[in-house]
Amino acid sequence: MEYLSLVHLKEGDTCKVARIQAGSSATRRLYEMGFNTGARLKVLKNDRGPMIVGLGGHKVALGRGLAAKMLVGRA
Amino acid sequence: MAKTIALVGNPNSGKTTVFNALTGANQHVGNWPGVTVERKEGQTHHNNQTYRVVDLPGTYSLGAFSEDEVVAREFILTGNPDVVINVVDATNIERNLYLTTQLLEMGTKVVIALNMVDEAEAREIHVDEKALAQALGVPVVRTVASRRKGLDQLMAAAAATIHAPMNGHVELSYGKAIDAKVARLRAFLAKGDFPYPQGWLAVKLLEGDEYVRQVVSESPALFELKTFRQFWDETVIHAGDLQLDIVDGRYKFVGEVTKHAVRRPEVEVETFTDKLDRVLTHRYWGMPIFAGIMLIVFQLTFAIGQDFLGEWMVVGMDYVGEGLDRLLVTLNAPGWLLDFASNGVVAGVGAVVEFVPLIVILYMLMGILEDSGYMARAAYVMDNTMRAVGLQGKTFISMIVGFGCNVPGVMATRTLENRKDRMIAILINPFMSCGAKIPIYLVFIAAFFPTHGGIVLFSAYALGILVAFLVAKVFSKTLFKGEVSHFIMELPPYRTPTLTNVLRNMWDNVSGFLARAGTTIFAVVSLLWVLAVLPTGAEPYGPASILGSIGQFIAPIFTPAGFGNWQAAVGLFSGIAAKEAVVATLGMVYAGVEEGAALVTAIQGAFTPLSAVSFMVMTLLYTPCAATLGTIRKETGSGKWALFSAVYAFAIGWLLAVAVFQIGSLMGFA
Ligand SMILES: Nc1nc2c(ncn2[C@@H]2O[C@H](COP(=O)(O)OP(=O)(O)O)[C@@H](O)[C@H]2O)c(=O)[nH]1
Ligand SMILES: [Mg+2]
């Protein structure tokens, strides 16, 4: 299975978190907020500015820099 | 002794609402010892028993990554709460239970308030609380805190849990490799004497938790064992590598718990929030809408707080003043006391108190925005702009808090994990025009721009933001270089604001304003009054008084800015004690100059429209008040930064005020 970076997904796409390659404290924060291995995401907004993703029915805004470091697989 | 109940939960789970509903008016705000994170405490009654309720900061985890987490964890570990009420948002139960899992691992007595069940139902998310209670081994009570539903049952469960024996703590499985290490560590830890469950200590050590590492390394008995030292060096020191596996392990546990207890719809119900967000976070419209909302807030503040309620306050203050005068006359009070009362206290403190209705309205409107969930969107739409000046969107929240008062504004920077972000956010916060400065603008608006109040006020706020951005840009290129930090922020669903929350939030702020009017402002005004009537022989409130001499000494600095009169200088000087004191002082010195003339009339005589603008620019930007400087010192851990803030803000305020006046004059304004 190949992984791609979250920023390349389009609005409406769904995916699963595979790996996060950010710094250790940002990675941990993301994990604790529910972006842990296997978490299902839905891209709600991806244009300019931070992305908005749906996670467990809630919305989280993610800076693009960070989203670029999140590797996801198709769900 | 009253038993202690601690409230723990994720941000936006409804903790504040539960706290307000439980404690009602019996609450107060203080600070945690040693740190300036706000601490709310209150009392509640159940079955004729009184309980102490402590609201802990909202957190996603009980690690040690931000100050808020540390505070929450410290209190659970060392504050000895008799029970923890864990407020869980039913619509987002998996992530909320991650925190619950940590509480259970710590061996804390927990009662779960399964909150927002109304919303969960609307979104067809069904939670079987009995199954949940069974799986977790703790009581679970359904609540709708905003409508006070389920709170009696919640208190009953909490009371019962306090008296029930502890039923052991939960131990999770983290997979073979980690479990083996945990078992090994536990065997060692059993030889030490720790006040915490060994399983929890072991897991925390493997997560690389600094605090627990410290606790364990202070146990000499363990380190005498060669085998332990070896294990410590080989495993514990590098344990941070395991932390993500441990987080995954907790989520796996949560997944098993919710598998049978939670049912979600196949297709998510599209919510009102989704529809509204399409507009409010729109890539082009988001920003203008935010600006529009703020403009409406200020216009409404004026329409209701000033034009409608403000008039009554003025009439009321006159009435109080005359009454006090008459009372003192009938009591045969000496002339100086009469003067002190009417020209010192009533003119000074009264000038501040007149603005209470306006501040009440402003805080209520801001509270509505806050409680509705819109503030997170404001941070979102600002992220791009913030990034351009080297900051991130979340910083904007601390700036908005600063609109109320810079003291909590500076404290709100604690949610920023990165030091560079935090230092800049602290240093620019005083440019956010706080509530105490409003009276100053209002007096000048009344004198020169009576028909454009909302616009002038809006411009003051906008200029403050603009200057903050420019300064941030400069700081991020010079004093605090480094990478822009990441932006991670939850966007909570839009909710109808709760009246209690809005009123509560307003009162916390307004009571502070009133308390300052009665203490700091009163003291400053009294002192200035003494300086204004001495030495005997000099004309009171005149240029020959001590106050007049001080003012005349400072005034020339402000001549290039167009307000080089001694009254203005004294006003600005007193504003360093507290910003409300500026108007109080002007009220006093001008009331003395022109007997019987209202402050506004006196100001029309002493300023021109242009110098009024430059004076407002100066008051917006110059040296922060003493309380803010004190907070900056505490939060940065150094008096140097406080001094820096005092000086550079003065310089910027002065430069801009001079620029406004000089350029304005050249352009032919007066
Ligand atoms: N629908 C609904 N809204 C709630 C409930 N409890 C709290 N709220 C609202 O949720 C929002 C966030 O609540 P708050 O208490 O500030 O959350 P905190 O961040 O945990 O302190 C506010 O708008 C509350 O009015 C509830 O049970 N049902
Ligand atoms: Mg709250």
Give the topology:
The complex is a heterodimer of chains A (75) and B (670).
Chain A: E1 4-5, E2 14-20, H1 24-32, E3 40-45, E4 51-55, E5 58-62, H2 64-68, E6 70-74
Antiparallel strand pairs in A: 1-6, 2-3, 2-6, 3-4, 4-5
Chain B: E1 3-9, H1 15-23, E2 27-31, E3 38-46, E4 49-55, H2 67-78, E5 83-89, H3 93-105, E6 110-115, H4 117-122, E7 126-127, H5 129-136, E8 140-142, H6 151-163, H7 176-189, H8 198-206, H9 210-217, H10 220-223, H11 226-236, H12 243-261, E9 262-263, H13 272-280, H14 286-330, H15 335-353, H16 356-372, H17 374-388, H18 395-404, H19 406-411, H20 419-428, H21 438-448, H22 453-477, E10 488-491, H23 499-533, H24 546-554, H25 566-574, H26 580-593, H27 599-606, H28 609-621, H29 626-636, H30 639-666
Parallel strand pairs in B: 1-4, 1-5, 5-6, 6-8
Antiparallel strand pairs in B: 2-3, 3-4, 7-9
Helix pairs in contact in B: 3-12, 5-12, 7-8, 14-15, 14-16, 14-22, 15-23, 15-26, 16-23, 17-18, 20-22, 21-22, 21-27, 21-28, 22-28, 23-26, 24-25, 25-26, 28-30, 29-30
The complex binds guanosine-5'-diphosphate and magnesium ion.
Magnesium ion (MG) binds at residues 15-16, 58 of chain B.
Model description:
By secondary structure, chain A is α+β, with helices and mostly antiparallel strands. Chain A has one domain (4-74): SH3 type barrels (Roll). In chain A, 19% of the residues lie in helices and 40% in strands. Chain A has two helices and six strands, in the order E-E-H-E-E-E-H-E. Chain A has a six-stranded antiparallel beta sheet with strand order 1-6-2-3-4-5. The longest helix of chain A has 9 residues, at 24-32. The mean pLDDT of chain A is 89. Chain B is α/β, with parallel strands linked by helices. Chain B folds into four domains: 3-163, P-loop containing nucleotide triphosphate hydrolases (Rossmann fold, 3-Layer(aba) Sandwich), CATH 3.40.50; 176-263, Helix Hairpins (Orthogonal Bundle); 290-442 and 490-511, no CATH class; 515-666, no CATH class. Chain B has 30 helices and ten strands. Chain B has helices at 15-23, 67-78, 93-105, 117-122, 129-136, 151-163, 176-189, 198-206, 210-217, 220-223, 226-236, 243-261, 272-280, 286-330, 335-353, 356-372, 374-388, 395-404, 406-411, 419-428, 438-448, 453-477, 499-533, 546-554, 566-574, 580-593, 599-606, 609-621, 626-636, 639-666, and strands at residues 3-9, 27-31, 38-46, 49-55, 83-89, 110-115, 126-127, 140-142, 262-263, 488-491. In chain B, helix 5 (129-136) crosses helix 12, helix 14 runs antiparallel to helix 16 and helix 24 (546-554) packs across helix 25. In chain B, 50% of the residues are buried. Chain A binds chain B through residues 22, 24-34, 36-37, 39, 44-45, 47-50, 52, 54-63, 65-66, and chain B through 60-61, 63, 65, 91-95, 98, 123, 125, 240, 243-244, 247-248, 251, 264, 268, 273-274, 277, 281, 283, 376, 380-381, 383-384, 387, 392-393, 417, 484, 486-493. Strand 5 (58-62) of chain A pairs antiparallel with strand 10 of chain B. Residues 15-16, 58 of chain B line the site of magnesium ion. Guanosine-5'-diphosphate (GDP) is lined by residues 9, 11-17, 58, 115-116, 118-119, 144-146, 371, 495, 497-498, 501 of chain B.
